[in-house]
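Key idea: predict the complex, not the pieces.
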Amino acid sequence: MTTTVSPQQTTTTPPTTGSAELPSVAEGAGVWTTGPRGALLGLGIGAVLLLVIAPLTLGGFGLDLLGRYLCVAMVAVGIGLAWGRGGMLTMGQGVYFGLGAYIMAMHMTLADTTLEGETIPTFMRQNGVEQLPELWGIVQHPVVAVAAVILVPTGVAGLLGWAIFSRRVKGAYFAILSQALAAAFAVLIIGQPVLTNGSNGLSNFHSLFGWDLSDQANRTVLFLVVAAVLLVMLAVTWQLYRSRFGELLVAVRDQEERVRFLGYDPALIKTVAYMIAALFAAIGGALFVPVVGIISPADIGVVPSIAFLIGVAIGGRSTWLGPVLGSIAVSFAGTQLASAFPSFWVYLQGLLFILVIGFLPGGLASVLGLVRRRRSQGANDDGGQAAGSTTAPVSSEQEATR
Amino acid sequence: MSRDHRPSYLEIRDLRVVFDKFVAVDGVDLRVEQGDLRFLIGPNGAGKTTTIDAVTALAPAQGSINHNGHELVGRKTHKIVRYGVGRTFQTASVFEDLTVLQNLDIAAGLRRRPRDMVRTRQEVSPRILEVMETTGLSRHQETKAGVLSHGQKQWLEIGMLMVQDATVLLLDEPVAGMSQGERDATGELLTKLAADHVVVVVEHDMEFLRKYAQSVTVMAAGKVIAEGTVAQVQADSTVQEIYLGTAGTKSLEEAKVEAELLGLDPEAVAVSGSTQSKEN
Amino acid sequence: MEILISQVFAGLSLGSVLLLAAVGLSLTFGQMGVINMAHGEFIMAGAYTAFTVQQVLGSAGVSLLVSLPLAFLIGGTLGLILEATLLRRMYHRPLDTLLVTFGVSLILQQLARDIFGAPSVDVRLPEFLSGPVMILGTPVPASRVFILVLTVVVVAGLSLLLSKTSLGRRIRAVVQSRDLAEASGISSRRTDALTFFIGSGLAGVAGVAITLIGSTSPTLGTTYIVDAFLVVVAGGIGQIRGAVIAAAGLGLLQVFFEFGTTASIAKVIVLVIVVAFLQIRPQGIVATQTRGLA
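Result:
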């Protein structure tokens, strides 16, 4: 290609005349996401807190509680990817969380049953079932169970996502469909008491892959595994966000049609992001079961599926760490308040949805972003340039993670 | 940038676009070859943009649209783009939340392998650097596209088209809202691009057209009414009638100016235009 | 034959309940693109209105007649407040209205729990609605016939309102083009408020109707909201005719599949059918804009 225009001609493009800094859609996207060094630092701090300090300071009960928060936070990480970056408001993550959880719970129930020398779980016997249903037989082997936790939800998300996105069903339509999916899934679980123990759910697990769950040492190891998995997920999303795929996902979120005219199929990009979100939710669900000890339809229906969103929104939906931090904070507040003031907690949740989404769509990250911007603006005052304005150089390192 | 040595072409045959019952494009034939700089003009509602939309599957097309032996009708937009057809829009459509570099990188990434997609950009490809230089956007590499000036956004879109590895470039009013200097720079650029691309420009700016068009196709009411060099089109009686008689939705003043720029007698407009309302 | 008739009737009956729950939603979603998750709680408010009125008045027949208009007013007022305080400032972010109104729905549910208690309450049926009626030689519950008739009246009334009155013309104008309507002097703000009042009022009416076929609890709204949204989605935005067809279709399909399998399986099948239907007629395609993509 020889299409270079001579310098005189290029200078005819007028320089940007100090245009005011526009509020960005992904307001505060830079907060909690600096460069690779910052990310490593963040992950390092997280690792020290979760893998060293928490096990040393928290008792068995505290560790279980934190482990539970972390499992829920895994769903939040996925939602951040799908909703914050990809613009897909998925209100049905409970389905994938539930798929992972129930597969794991079925496997663990079977393992316990076998240990007790029985052939079919107690609840089935009470329901008059005499032969183990085939669906259960499949997940008897631990490897198959783990594979199913990974493959089944991802496969469902892939099929569904492709069917929806390739027909350009988006926005509110997608949100409503995903919500209907959660409703139908919960109804399905409740409606099959013989297979799922209905609304009681599955509980009373004694062992995981042969490890005794009543042994505190094993529980600590389990917590460490949960924490490590979450950290890995964070590392993966961090890389995704700064990768070309991450950029493309933002492009699809903001101007889906335009992406089409660059030769990409937005449906493919969205489906991939949706599948990753489903996978994270499923893993969170699968780990939730041994940590918490029960899974029931109450954890996966319409309301819990939407409740996953609030932490993501508070933390900052399009940021890297916002969803995780927000989710953990909401879970923590939930356990602190829900038992002491149950009705107050519900009101507070409602208010949080209204205030954060209605008045602070960027989440707390946008407040921090504002503060940070103010500060750097103040520091640059003598230079006469607002930080982040078009003329201010932005280090490529900082930009890479956005 | 054709991948083989035969010159690229875009051939439209008997193109029809129908919305509900309204026929927007009615049997258009158009052939543009590499080396030509084709301008597509006509009064408002003539079907110019709709023709481009039909080529890129944004509007429902009937008939045949062939690019270097590939039939485009019936294919999805992203597939058509992958055959080498690129376009811009009247309102510059760039990704406002991404930087200039990220915009260009996405445009250039069509044939990237999945492995490269999950990686971070290690270095800026020479082609993108070259295009940023060409479009004067080098200084704004890390600027979010949303804060660029109007003209700069247009240039960014053209830049995206250039790195896209397209063989057919369809530009919808590329110089709208540009200063005189910017227009000339764009014209020079398009002229250079036309050497090895099929370039079709929809434009209202007649001065720009007279300066840079190598050939012109005139459309009115969904049909092609004339085709040829600028001089041939100016001499065409049907064109004169369209621009002088039924100035369409244009005001009298607009029609006058346009006629003058086309090299027609503006007074003829005043005469034929006096019978119709000033604006409709 | 008798089974078929009773099945078809059960399907239409379910459809009419769905339609009653969805028709107001279709109006607000259609005009403003606002996805009001609290619509379900407006239905619940209507149901509790019926309960309270009956507690006060005693007579089941009289209180039914009183509760219908009263529930319309209460639902409408709730909607009006919601529109004026929150939604008005969020019309450019339709997806976010969904979550904001979910917050509202959480609060309303908890309010109901604190006022009326978590356990469900029952509204007594009036004498004339408690027995069965014979239709084509098949006995069907009179209460369900009443709901069917009520739905027909409500939908017909709404269609008339939209097609014949000046308010209806304003609503349709705003639905078609907000900017154009504004330019021709229609106050979209007042039209929005009125539309929301009517749409939410209809939720209240639906709530009263639902007390005739089931018990009332704080979570009543959540059981209906998802299906109501499905009706709106399948019927097409702002299309009352579409909502009618979709509601009848979903009701019939649900009952039909229930007959062969179980209620839960039927629900999943119906959802799959809706997704499949959207494959053929996907709504929400915004690809017709041609001059630009912004």
